[in-house]
């Protein structure tokens, strides 16, 4: 264990000093702070000017004379279309509408404006819509009913437990945001950290250090020390994100509000996040150690690794299907597939309640895969580490593993 | 398992290392014992039934042409690869993770952490040999100073010249004060100044009672530095023993003479071969070099140089390798 600890410490220090590692660690808080800053700048710049928008109308249907003051929009009546056109040309109004006599039957309102646009501005649409519905319903129903017609219903969902009490986790998009963001960063962290294992071993092989190292330590001490050292650095990265995220969420809530006010983090999320990070990282790290052992150059190893790490990010490709049916048997099976489990389970935790047996089974299968991977990686390293210049074929590797 | 009277060695037990080293010297335990090792890669027999031993306090030459099996033999000694059969004992026991701390190994394929500073590289690799920073750093400074490279201790390795990097690699090999040093082609790509520096450093190790195994295909270096040798060709041991003894074994019955006035016919001389600056006289059976010298001087010749002709190691190797080639050809169908 003594030499494993030395390798571990060396790898930890070397990794946390890497520029790429520092950039990735700081990226989540920095990008989030930038996002909040940009939101504030844009929202400040996009605030509507205090002046009112004046819209003209020609009432050919009759009876549209109330509700002309619609917050930022004021509607002004004109006796004829010609008079409204003159006012538009003189820029006394921004635009005007003609309410035809058969409006109630057809629903068609003609709009005239000077500027081209893809669609009318939402504020204008809302103001005209409320003006028309208000006048149509005036005198027939109460003002409260008119307001309710003009403002759509707010659907508030409450999730109950099987016993009928209110569930502690209410789900919804506010429950999915943190696991989704964290899942993405987890995938990046797992990929980056395990790539450091590949790079580290690749460099030692490419720089012809491996034989010097193996005259001091065993292959297992080397692989375990390297995997744990770089893993500890990756874990430190995840902890930095976990510690800074409440602060950033608080800032986002106070400055942006909206959805951030309602953000919830599932109860066991952080515990499972750390567990899945550790397991996911260890799995990919031992796989990368094996890839490094059979690769002749770092570049060759990275091309193989690029293919393997697709599994880590694959759940994001199907996120829309995942949102629709998070408990589909397909996702349950893939949650037990070690290369996809870390990120997939994170996303599912944000979408639904993942049963404890699925979590336990996926973690147990991952643990088995890690132990097997470590044994294979150490064996491959011992067999192929001194083979410079030619990569063994898959058949040779399998025969070699069987023989040893 | 420890032999009777030996003290267990751990990383911090320097006294035990010293005690055992003395005991080993007293008992004449070889630094290396290789016993009938065989190693094959696919269908090729890389090392075929090779046996030898290396004593403490000697420089042992492992020689042979490229691809002869020297590096494979060393890698089996260092436990980097396992032999298919046979036995290897290093410093009196089968190599273990603990006894690896007493070895210094400079492989043929060698390098350093390119982005790491020289001192950090040395200290880290020394730590893997059980030496802490407090011990390794002053020793590294001393060795760097001896090599005139103390000023480079803070530089990154990829800023060093190839020769300087090789010196650092050699320092890494010996910084933990090993009992056995194995050097595989240590002079490759070194200029004469750095070659002398490395020679001086490892001869000092020999003088301190350490064992040094030197693997090279440069025969002149072996003649200059080694006490005993093993010559490998095509995976098999073809010559083994003390350098002087081997040369005597292959010495021809002739003398080298550089003189004026040597008669055309000297009694006891069967043939004369003229070379630039000297002639070689092949003696008849029963004639000694002393008799020929007396006859030449007696004939009034002025002798500037007279010596018994001994073949160079290179000539011996060519002779041995050539004979093996002929033998192989003669038995071929």
Protein model, in words:
The complex is a heterodimer of chains A (404) and B (333). Chain A has 404 residues and is mainly α. Helix content of chain A is 65%, strand content 6%. Chain A contains 17 helices and 5 strands. In chain A, α2 runs parallel beside α9, α7 runs antiparallel to α11 and α10 runs parallel beside α16. The mean pLDDT of chain A is 83. The N terminus and C terminus of chain B are likely disordered. In chain B, β6, α6 and β7 form a beta-alpha-beta unit. Chain B is 36% helix and 26% strand. In chain B, α3 packs across α4 and α3 runs parallel beside α5. At the A-B interface, α1 and α8 of A face β5 and α3 of B.
Key descriptive features of the protein:
heterodimer, A: 404 residues, mainly alpha, five-stranded mixed beta sheet, 17 helices, 65% helix, elongated, B: 333 residues, alpha/beta, six-stranded mixed beta sheet, four-stranded antiparallel beta sheet, 10 helices, disordered N terminus, disordered C terminus
Task: Please describe the topology of this protein.
The complex is a heterodimer of chains A (404) and B (333).
Chain A: H1 2-16, H2 19-45, E1 53-59, E2 69-70, E3 73-78, H3 81-89, E4 95-99, H4 103-106, E5 110-113, H5 122-137, H6 143-150, H7 173-206, H8 210-214, H9 219-255, H10 269-294, H11 298-308, H12 310-317, H13 319-324, H14 329-335, H15 341-351, H16 356-384, H17 394-403
Parallel strand pairs in A: 1-3, 1-4
Antiparallel strand pairs in A: 2-3, 4-5
Chain B: H1 14-27, E1 32-41, E2 44-54, E3 59-63, H2 70-77, E4 85-90, E5 103-106, H3 118-127, H4 133-146, H5 162-174, E6 180-184, H6 192-207, E7 211-216, H7 219-225, E8 228-233, E9 236-242, H8 243-250, E10 254-260, E11 269-275, E12 278-283, H9 289-298, E13 302-308, H10 313-331
Helix pairs in contact in B: 3-4, 3-5
């Amino acid at each position: 264990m003594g030499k494993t600890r030395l390798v571990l410490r060396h790898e930890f220090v070397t990794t946390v000093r890497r520029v790429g590692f520092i950039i990735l660690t700081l990226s989540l808080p920095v990008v989030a702070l930038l996002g909040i800053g940009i939101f504030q700048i844009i929202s400040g710049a996009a605030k509507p000017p205090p002046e009112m928008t004046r819209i003209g109308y020609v009432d050919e249907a009759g009876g549209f004379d109330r509700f002309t003051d619609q917050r930022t929009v004021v509607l002004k009546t004109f006796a004829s279309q010609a008079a409204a056109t003159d006012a538009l040309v003189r820029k006394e109004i921004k635009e005007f509408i003609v309410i035809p006599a058969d409006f109630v039957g057809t629903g068609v309102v003609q709009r005239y404006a000077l500027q081209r646009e893809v669609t009318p501005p939402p504020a204008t649409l809302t103001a005209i819509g409320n003006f028309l519905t208000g006048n149509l319903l005036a005198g027939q129903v109460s003002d409260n009913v008119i307001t309710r017609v003009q403002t759509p219903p707010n659907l508030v969902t409450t999730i109950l437990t099987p016993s009928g009490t209110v569930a502690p986790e209410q789900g919804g998009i506010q429950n999915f945001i943190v696991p989704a963001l964290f899942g993405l960063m987890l995938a990046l962290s797992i990929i980056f950290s395990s790539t450091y294992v590949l790079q580290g071993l690749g460099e030692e092989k490419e720089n012809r250090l491996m034989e010097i190292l193996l005259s001091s330590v065993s292959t297992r001490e080397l692989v375990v020390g390297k995997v744990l050292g770089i893993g500890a650095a990756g874990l430190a990265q995840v902890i930095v994100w976990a510690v800074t995220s409440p602060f950033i969420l608080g800032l986002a809530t106070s400055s942006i509000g909206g959805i951030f006010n309602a953000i919830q983090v599932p109860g066991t999320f952080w515990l499972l996040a750390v567990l899945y990070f550790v397991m996911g990282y260890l799995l990919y790290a031992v796989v990368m150690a094996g890839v490094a052992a059979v690769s002749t150059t770092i570049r060759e190893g990275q091309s193989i690794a690029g293919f393997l790490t697709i599994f880590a990010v694959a759940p994001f490709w199907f996120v829309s299907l995942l949102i629709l049916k998070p408990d589909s048997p397909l996702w349950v099976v893939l949650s037990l597939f070690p290369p996809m489990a870390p990120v997939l389970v994170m996303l599912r935790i944000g979408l639904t309640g993942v049963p404890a047996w699925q979590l336990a089974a996926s973690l147990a299968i991952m643990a088995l895969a890690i132990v097997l991977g470590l044994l294979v990686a150490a064996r491959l390293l011992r067999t192929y580490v001194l083979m410079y210049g030619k990569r063994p074929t898959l058949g040779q590797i399998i025969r070699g593993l069987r023989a040893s | 398992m420890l032999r009777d009277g030996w003290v267990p060695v751990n990383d911090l037990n320097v006294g035990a290392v010293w005690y055992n080293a003395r005991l080993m010297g007293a008992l004449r335990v070889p630094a290396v014992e290789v016993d009938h090792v065989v190693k094959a890669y696919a269908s090729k027999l890389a090392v075929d039934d090779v046996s030898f031993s290396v004593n403490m306090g000697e420089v042992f030459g492992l020689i042979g042409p490229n691809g002869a099996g020297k590096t494979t033999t060393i890698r089996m000694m260092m436990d980097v690869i396992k032999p298919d059969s046979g036995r290897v004992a290093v410093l009196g026991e089968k190599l273990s993770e603990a006894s690896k701390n007493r070895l210094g190994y400079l492989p043929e394929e060698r390098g350093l952490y390119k982005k790491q500073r020289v001192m950090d590289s040395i200290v880290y690799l020394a730590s893997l040999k059980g030496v802490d920073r407090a011990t390794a750093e002053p020793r590294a400074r001393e060795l760097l100073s001896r090599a005139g490279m103390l000023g480079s201790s803070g530089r990154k390795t990829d800023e060093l010249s190839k020769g300087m990097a090789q010196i650092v690699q050699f320092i890494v090999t010996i910084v933990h004060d090993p009992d056995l040093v194995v050097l595989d082609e240590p002079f490759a790509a070194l200029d004469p100044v750095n070659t002398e520096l490395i020679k001086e450093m490892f001869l000092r190790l020999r003088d301190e009672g350490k064992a040094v195994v030197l693997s090279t295909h440069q025969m002149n270096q072996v003649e200059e530095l080694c006490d005993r040798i093993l010559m490998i060709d095509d995976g098999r041991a073809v010559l083994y023993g003390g350098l002087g003894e081997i040369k005597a074994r292959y010495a021809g019955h002739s003398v080298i003479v550089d003189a004026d006035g040597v008669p055309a016919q000297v009694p006891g001389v069967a043939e004369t071969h003229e070379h630039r600056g000297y002639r070689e006289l092949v003696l008849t059976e029963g004639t000694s070099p002393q008799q020929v010298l007396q006859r030449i001087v007696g004939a009034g010749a002025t002798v500037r140089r007279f010596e018994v002709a001994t073949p160079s190691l290179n000539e011996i190797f060519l002779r041995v390798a050539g004979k093996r080639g002929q033998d192989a050809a003669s038995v071929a169908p």
